[in-house]
Amino acid sequence: MSLKKTSLYAATTVAALSVALTACGGSSGSGSSGGAWDKDATVNIGSLYEPQNLDNTAGGGQGVTEALNGNVYEGLFKLTDDGDVEKLLAQNYKVSDDGLTYTFTLRDGVRFHSGKKLTSADVKYSLEKVLADDSQSARKSNLKVVKHIATPDAKTVKVTLSQKSISFVYNLSYVWIINSEAKNVKTTEDGTGPYTLAKWTRGSALSLDRFADYWGDAAANKKVVFHYYKNATALNNALLTNAVDVVTGEQSPDALDQFKNNQNYKVNDGDSTTKLLLAFNDKAKPFNNVKVRQAVSAAIDDKKLLHSVWGDYGRLIGSMVPPTDPWYEDLTGVNAYNVKKAKRLLAEAGYGDGFAFTLDTPNYDPHPTAATFIKSELAKVGITVKINTITSDEWYTKVYQNHDFTATLQEHVNDRDLVWYGNPDFYWGYDDKHVTAWIKQAEEASTTAQQTALLKKANRKTAEDAASDWLYLYPQIVVANSRLSGYPLNGLNAQFYAYDIKKKG
Q1: What is the per-residue pLDDT across 433-458, written as a single tens digit (0 to 9) for each?
Q2: What angle (nearest 5°) sits at the alpha carbon of residue 224, between those of residues 258 and 239?
Q3: Burial of 108: CB neighbours in 10 Å, binned 0-12, 13-18, 19+
Q4: How many CA atoms lie within 13 Å of 88's alpha carbon, on the beta-carbon side?
Q5: With CB atoms counted within 10 Å of each terminal CB, which end of the chain scores lower, N or C?
Q6: What is the pTM of this model?
Q7: What is the helix (H) or strand (E) element at residue 434, kind and residue range?
Q8: Partners of residue 469 on adjacent β-strands
Q9: Ordered DSSP codes for 68-123
């Protein structure tokens, strides 16, 4: 799971995808493709998500993935902008007949930015870093199937699992391979990607320079600068004044007309995997009662909320599974908006006179807006909401680590993250033995067809139980100067590959 502006990053159950050989290129990109482009251009990228630090196992947040994943650091495998998995630092691999042993052969000629040659010891170190006790990455939950890592020679990594994992290769696409000798990776880096870290000025910008000794195709531009802004208005003004060339994700739909009606810009509406959740603590009263959760879900007009925040963009989702996941089904009708039904369910649950609860709300948009809307909606069925506004760090400690909450708002970025409802110890505490079993069986499935069928069952059950209230699916609106092409269009797991971006002179 990934959470915007928080320190959680994790993989999820996913189909065993076909793997194709690739180098650095392959971005789906868009924008102007004609005319000469400047190979020595500086591409200025505008974002609201500055890293908290540069280590994706130490609470770096969405910003560190956006800036460094694929650009500075690479994995054995790569998740493309279209959601496919391709080989990257792995030249090839084979799987044992019992599905428990994976043998990876590393690509030749790969060097870290420090000049050190990539070896199997670096891969072992990077996997163990994710699994370490002090790792803040929820990714380690998925990789706990790793039983043993062997390095028989410098080019070979042999990983033995404790049980079959159809998602193992996919999960590895999230693991950054870091120089095992690197120090202070919270503030510096030593990756193998097409860019090196040039400078990070906290609160302002992070710049990357093309790596001259990159093993693959050189980046299409010489320099990339991520500029960080406090709000969407400042971000849009930067684009209008050419301070930035592209915005990774538009957060102010009301401002889009000024770009749509201007030939100097292109507005792209891609696919997002970011869900806004009203997450209940399913182990705490009153939300340990399924009828209360169903009632609250039915009492909130998700369509009205979506329109108030995003206008005509975004979509209702009805479950944790977005349309880009293989096991998607339209479940928006399961707990659809119905005030009469909500009141009836509350009465059946023993709360006919309503109740009061505290909603822990992150202090950045759109959470405060959504919290105020939810408070107003639930008041109509007799439920009193106290909004408790907290910072990202407070949320991580209070909600995620300590489970000290009744309900909260949060954005979940990753695709294929239904798996968290199969973990009763996850922060929202949903615990259904059938769902837990189906998700476990899906991970150990032999075919993607078996996996998909099981996850559809799990998805429907969590929707029927209103395990959470999935308020809406974000749009992914990338706005760029018309001089640009080759930029990513989709919002998969917060990554933003910059190496294919071309800029006209």
Answers
A1: 999 999 999 999 989 999 999 999 99
A2: 10
A3: exposed
A4: 31
A5: C
A6: 0.82
A7: helix 433-443
A8: 278
A9: HBTTTB--SEEE-TTS-EEESSEEEEEE-TTS-EEEEEEPTT-B-TTSPBP-HHHH
